[in-house]
């Protein structure tokens, strides 16, 4: 049995990715901060015949993230696919949104911790076993602003672009090893209540892209535009 670890597992995209892989025979390790919310997702997936378990951790607390991934690997016998997509739908301490000209190091640093350092920490927790096996998939998600930035997200986009750059280069480095890394940029709002004039898509429309990337193992990036 293969296992996917979803980091930033919420009721939107995280759950849809868990379902997409779970329906194809994967066990699912769900990682986010709030145990109660994770337990609801575990129950939901269980009712659909998907074996899932919760491993609470905060991506800003790097040792908790590493420990959660180690527990998940021990529980399921390894991690075959890692997917990174936390989103601060409830407040994350220190995260702000400022324009490029307003950006200070204090505004930027937590975004870098959240986007880049969390992703690097997660990858380092699973990559040695993947390299040894000569197999594995690493998928990282950002908003479309990592590619086409918008002024109101100056600090957010800069940190997401740093993550994107690192993933594209990780993809290059891992070429030929059997381990595959890719970046997904989502240029739409996800779910209902999109701001006026903003394109939106459901999590169910977006999640199959992750399966496609995992199966095809060729593209370094997919930019989802709806
Ligand atoms: N929503 C959008 O409109 C939109 C648009 C473009 C791109 N994206 C991308 O899509 C992904 C998110 O998808 P979604 O919006 O549907 O979210 P989701 O999967 O419904 O939920 C994301 C989960 O991340 C968890 N999280 C937040 N901060 C965390 C932290 N510090 N450590 C660990 N987990 C944390 C939250 O749970 P806890 O609060 O329990 O930690 C939340 O439930 C992100 O990569 C985001 O950049 C979203």
TrEMBL record:
Query: Where is coiled-coil annotated?
Result: none
Write the protein's name.
NAD(P)-dependent dehydrogenase (Short-subunit alcohol dehydrogenase family)
Q: Which species is the source of this protein? A: Kribbella solani
């Amino acid at each position: 049995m293969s296992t996917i670890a979803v980091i930033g597992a919420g009721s939107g995209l995280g759950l849809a990715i868990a379902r997409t892989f779970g329906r194809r025979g994967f066990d699912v390790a769900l990682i986010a901060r709030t145990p109660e919310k994770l337990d609801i997702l575990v129950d939901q997936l269980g009712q659909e015949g998907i074996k899932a378990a919760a491993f609470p951790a905060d991506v800003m607390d790097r040792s908790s993230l590493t420990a959660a991934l180690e527990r998940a690997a021990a529980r399921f016998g390894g991690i075959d696919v890692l997917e990174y997509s936390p989103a601060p739908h409830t407040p994350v301490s220190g995260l702000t949104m400022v324009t490029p000209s307003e950006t200070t190091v204090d505004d930027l640093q937590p975004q870098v911790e959240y986007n880049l350092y969390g992703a690097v920490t997660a990858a380092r927790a699973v990559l040695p076993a993947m390299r040894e096996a000569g197999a594995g998939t690493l998928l990282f998600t950002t908003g479309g602003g990592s590619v086409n930035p918008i002024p109101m997200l100056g600090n957010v986009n800069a940190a997401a672009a740093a993550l994107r750059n690192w993933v594209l280069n990780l993809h290059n480095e891992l070429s030929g090893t059997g381990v595959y890394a890719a970046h997904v940029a989502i240029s739409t709002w996800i779910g209902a209540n999109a701001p006026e004039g903003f394109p939106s898509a459901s999590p169910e429309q977006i999640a199959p892209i992750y399966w496609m990337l995992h199966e095809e193992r060729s593209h370094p990036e997919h930019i989802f535009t709806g």
